[in-house]
Amino acid sequence: MNQAAIFSPFFAMLFLTFVVWVYMYIRRISFITKSKIGSQKLAVPGALAQMSPPGVSNPSDNLKNLFEIPVLFYALVLYLFVTQQVDTVYVYTAWIFVFFRTLHSIVHCTFNFILLRFYLYLFATLALWFMAIRAAIIHFRI
């Protein structure tokens, strides 16, 4: 298998992070402009988060989420590539991770149905743990 195939889901995940980042700023700037919040209020740490309705704070929270578990995904992808372990199972599982993380972000940034968001997060994270455990087993030849 072409080892570089693992970078398609890798860059898809980076693109998702970029899209959420842009969406977050669109929501924030729109809220700040419409609310006419002065720079003095925004200078107080945490003030924007306290003032923001869920439609503004959820994209920000989601962006923070994209720097938690996905960081393990990036590290694992790089490990698999460097050790030449990339195979079809890893690539498909990486796409499953990205797919469910994308759905998770869509839900979190829009209607934010918590139970649905939880299951989407769970499925994505289980895919990642499968990849990690499989890589560890192969690495240590358990």
Structure description:
With 142 residues, the chain is mostly helical. Helices cover 80% and strands 0% of the residues. It contains seven helices and no strands. The longest helix has 29 residues, at 7-35. It is elongated and about 60 Å long.
SSE order and pairing:
Blueprint: H1 7-35, H2 39-42, H3 47-51, H4 54-65, H5 69-82, H6 88-109, H7 114-140
Helix pairs in contact: 1-4, 1-6, 5-7, 6-7
Describe the structure in brief.
Helices cover 80% and strands 0% of the residues.
Give the termini separation: 23 Å
Main beta sheet strand tally, sense and closure = none
Instruction: Calculate Rg over CA atoms.
Output: 18 Å
Class from helix and strand fractions: mainly alpha
Strands, count: 0
Query: What's the mean pLDDT score?
Result: 95
Helix share, percent? over 70%
- Total helical elements: 7
Overall, the morphology is: elongated
- What is the chains' assembly state? single chain
Please provide the ordered H/E string of secondary-structure elements: HHHHHHH
Uncertain spans: none
Tell me the β content: under 5%
Give a quick set of tags describing it.
7 helices; 142 residues
